[in-house]
Amino acid sequence: MFQKILIANRGEIACRVIDTARKLGVRTVAVYSDADRASRHVAMADEAVHIGGPAPRDSYLRGDAIIEAALNSGAQAIHPGYGFLSENPGFVDAVHAAGLAFIGPSADAIRKMGLKDAAKALMEQAGVPVVPGYHGDNQEPGYLAGQADAIGYPVLIKAVAGGGGKGMRLVERSSEFAEALKSAQGEAATAFGNAAVLIEKYIQQPRHIEVQVFGDGTRAVHLFERDCSLQRRHQKVIEEAPAPGMTAEMRRAMGAAAVRAAEAIGYSGAGTIEFIVDGSNGLRPDGFWFMEMNTRLQVEHPVTELITGVDLVEWQLRVASGEGLPATQDQLSIRGHAFEARLYAEDVPAGFLPATGTLSHLRFPDHARIETGVRPGDTISPWYDPMIAKVVTHGATRAIALRALEAALVDTEVAGSVTNVDFLIALTRHAGFGRGEVDTGLIGRDLEALVEAAEPDPRSKALAVLGLAGLDDPRVRGGMTLWQPLRRTIAWEGGEAVLEVLGAGVARVSVDGNTHQIGYEGGRWWVDGSPRASRIVNHAAGTSVFGGRSLTLSPLDPLARGGAETGGGLTLSPMPGLVKAVFVEPGQEVATGDRLAILEAMKMEHTLTAARDGRVAEVLARAGEQVEAGAPLIRLEEEVDA
Ligand code: ADP
Ligand code: ADP
Ligand code: MG
């Protein structure tokens, strides 16, 4: 086994590799860009080397700088993760030339699978079924149009160098072919520096089923299949293993084809053979075709780990350091069912726009496997993939694992950026998905309803108003003293509401033209007579409501927050911090603008002042005390109408 390895990646996959290396007693070297100085993967590694600017081409794609870092730090091998340099054969050659091991396949195997057209030709020779279509050299538009006509519409145009769904166009009829070809070639030229395309029959009601393989350079085994049919625009959203409806006969056929594919190129390490499957008539052993091979560890590898009990990164390290295959085919079996959901910083209602932000609050459930590269306070920067985490669950049956996924997502709390968590929750509740009726068109067909079900609702907003007023937890927050009858206007960035507290744990919130009755009973919130799974959380960037249909309200100005909301005479801590001094005591008269207390937060001192004239009723904080955002500090007596 290696003593020390360098991980040429960032984010969750770098952290994932470090976890297993540590388990095996292997020391780790991280590399990082300017944007990642304070990242989780850097903190986790034994050593870290700065390799350049935030743009990938200035850091994570700089093979020379990465190899130099490995040599200088005494690492014996490089793990590439996925993306970046993981499927770059030139990098693999350079790693070997430097006398280092590459934790992955040979450069030759990567080259053979690197271009989709050549890979298809090779697989045909190896007796692996491929999608019918044209994958030859002639790129003349008229010729390609003729091929498309011969294949029969609909067809799919694919960039031969493509990946991540780029350079791909579905063409429904002949008249649309020329236009689609031009745009696919343009996109391919920009993204991959290679405009060449292939044309495939578009499989109706397609399912994406892939087989995990593992080779030692000569022989290979498979670790069964994953179903990745839940996609949006050819990008995976939720993956599972095994595939719903899979038969023993089909699994044997697909596994054998995948092993044949891996052995045909002398594959070493973890790889994935992706197949497109005709799902229109149940799964049949003659209804699957090779699409491409991903010559690396796949994003969704954890679902395979959970059903097989194999640590694929451990296998990668063992085989790359010279051991044989850790198991024979007979020793591998499937236990239960697993799901993975990809949690992204993205604005779903705005068309799944990638988002950025500083995660002012981040909490994951402990009843799921979480793969993440971020911690509370970390930033999702515009430089990289906006994935926040992978939420992975396992259960004895598909139904149990799916309910576990739903529960894990409901218990996930992210503030500081919008996320797709509620879209993912809506998917776990989709009836067809629940029945295992998956195909790559499912999300597209029901997109409107799924997005609608993921939008924050007025009841979440009403609860968030309580949070802004510091009434987020009736059990602890200042006891019930805060829940005294009052009526005040609460304003935030983009809206306002009228809050009436009627008694302990009972309130009314009027917002957006509706009035909601709120209660707290039996350890949960009730809105308009129905119980909610919602949790109200105050954090540095405002108040969030989690537990489905999440939303965050940001105070108008963090420092004006106490002043803006003291209709009830309450001064709240505008942010988490340390109370440095309190200048008033109960019974004392104060005038508007008088100093009440000093709070130290974000390395600065903030003076909190009285928003109106009055007499101090209660001092709820002491100097030296650490307080949360929204914590009540000082309460003035009720105003008496003159
Ligand atoms: P997976 O099935 O593992 O999700 P994807 O094709 O979605 O495979 O790619 C996973 C990650 O690898 C993407 O998020 C992206 O960062 C990276 N990636 C894949 N292919 C390419 C490519 N051709 N160019 C750049 N990055 C890629
Ligand atoms: P990428 O390299 O971008 O991952 P793939 O060839 O793996 O490209 O295809 C990505 C996705 O496009 C598949 O998961 C599937 O949803 C869809 N797809 C690919 N080929 C076909 C096909 N022939 N018929 C129907 N859908 C397809
Ligand atoms: Mg693919």
From TrEMBL:
Pfam families, A to Z: Biotin_carb_C, Biotin_carb_N, Biotin_lipoyl, CPSase_L_D2
Stretches assigned to the ATP-grasp domain: 120-321
Span of domain Biotin carboxylation: 1-448
Domain of life of the native organism: Bacteria
Keyword Mitochondrion in record: no
Cofactor: biotin
Lipoyl-binding domain segment(s): 559-637
Keywords, ordered alphabetically: ATP-binding, Biotin, Ligase, Nucleotide-binding
InterPro entries with a match to the protein in the record: ATP-grasp (IPR011761), BC-like_N (IPR005481), Biotin_BS (IPR001882), Biotin_carboxylase_complex (IPR050856), Biotin_carboxylation_dom (IPR011764), Biotin_COase_C (IPR005482), Biotin_lipoyl (IPR000089), CPAse_ATP-bd (IPR005479)
Keyword DNA-binding recorded: no
Protein name as annotated: Biotin carboxylase N-terminal domain-containing protein
